[in-house]
Target: 5-deoxy-glucuronate isomerase
Amino acid sequence: MTELLRKPSGKAGKVHDITPASAGWGYVGFGLYRLKRGEAASEQTGETEVILVLVEGKARISGSGKKFGELGDRMSVFERTPPHCVYIPAGSDWSAEATTDCVLAICTAPAMPGREAQQIGPEGISFVERGKGANTRYIYPIAMEDRDVADSLLVTEVFTPSGNWSSYPPHRHDEDNYPEMTYLEETYYHRLNPARGFGFQRVFTEDGSLDETMAVSDGDVVLVPRGHHPCGVPHGYEMYYLNVMAGPMRKWRFQNHPDHDWIYQRDNS
Model:
């Protein structure tokens, strides 16, 4: 199994625990809890800021001395309702108690203390259509750069319909060369509907030094340390993914693959 494809460690508890050290990079961390009703999770944030995303189910969330109460309303991510999310600053802590079975994502990146803990969704998160034809997908931009809700983290959800492609045409953001491009590491947490489905993701550089194509199952995470990273889902299945990005600058500037940029130019002319 490629090192870029991370399978969940089990079906309960903290099933993903990706850190910069385990990923071999410098910024992005991603954790995922699968909790039964009545179970709880808690962590110190340390030198990272955290965005908690209730992927599915409901939980009572507290953090940095604040109680946010019971959050969450979609029992399946494929209901496509906007997610309930909470920002927790560095140098603090958070806790969650599941009030139904729930799936809780923990998105992290380096930050300094100072921001206030706050709820950042579902209010303020709009449903955006992107692309054309078999490249159509739907976005919930949870914490992109137009929302001043974090120091480093960029977080978004994407729904890719049956038979469609996403993160396409292939693009990369692996050079610290603003404004042309920003260096951003990225994780993809994939879900499939029905869950027995599969999808594909290719991570590749233009010089061929990295070229990995992975079949992803429901619950897998793909690491994107550099290069282009399109994904697709076969007919009959729908794909969801939660993206976490971070780097030295909280801006998303990318460049399309030169061989395939004509598709973007055609569709956006």
Notes: The chain has a mean pLDDT of 97. The longest helix spans residues 261-267. The longest strand covers residues 48-56.
